[in-house]
Amino acid sequence: MLANPFFLAIKAGLATLLALVLSELVGNTDHVSAAFIAVLCTSPTVLIGLRRALTQFAGSLVGGLLGVICIALDVPIWIGVPVAVALSIRGAFLLGVSQGHQVAAFSAILVQLLPRGTALETLDTRLVAVFVAAVSGSVVNLVVSGMTYDEIFGRRMRLVEQQVYRLMPGAARNGPEAAQEGFTVIAQLQDELSLALEELRWRQNWEKFRLIQSMWWRVGRLRHLLHVASEMGYLARTTSVTDDELRPFLSWMTHLEGERPRVPDHLEPTAHRIVAELLSLVAGIDHGAADEAGDAVDESTSR
Length: 303
Fold this sequence. Notes:
This protein has helices at 5-26, 31-41, 46-72, 77-94, 101-113, 119-145, 149-174, 180-203, 206-238, 243-252, 268-283, 287-302. Helix 7 packs antiparallel against helix 8 (180-203). It is an all-alpha fold. It is elongated. The longest helix has 33 residues, at 206-238.
């Protein structure tokens, strides 16, 4: 997980506090839902938080309506609750809000087991609580995260880089299976950065936009580096290259010191691409310049 546990805990605590205060102000009695969903709405960016809030609201509506239907039909709770839970989860997936399926199930349970007046009054109380929670989470995301994108994503960037560099030698020896963990965290960070760019473009915060854009570019280079390393590993395994033949190069590419050790001839093109990607990450240059730098390293190696 890329989130900072300490930072996440502080944000969740603030969002919960604000949700409870707002619940009191609007006279909503469902403090449990407001506090719990406020935690779910905390996120690294405002836009991610808003999307989570919409997902939670949609899930709550689905589960709540199903719970109301069970009450209206006077279905015993030992039948109504499990049926409503199952249908609400299925409904969340069918409606494209699968990330809110837990909240949908929770709403189906809450409406039937903890009624607050009539079934519709219970649903209304639940939806107001979700709205309060969404506002609370969004305010905290805006105030706390919106001003510190460089720290938030800088830390995530460092974690992903460390992961990629740790996995790279294994991927270059054993193929894609050794790199799956890296591809997972890269995909997560790319999604978060894409949403951050969308949000910053909307806010016209061009200074932070350029910063996040450079991080987005760098994550793409890390993904490509891991792909190329995986390609070398696949070729090495399918052509019975021994560990001894690869070990010098694998050791060298973690430090980039001295001349580059050669690898078997059929792996040389892939080795060249790995060097180019590493140099582009070290220097922060584009792909064409990285290829030229890789050529320079290879020429010095062949002398």
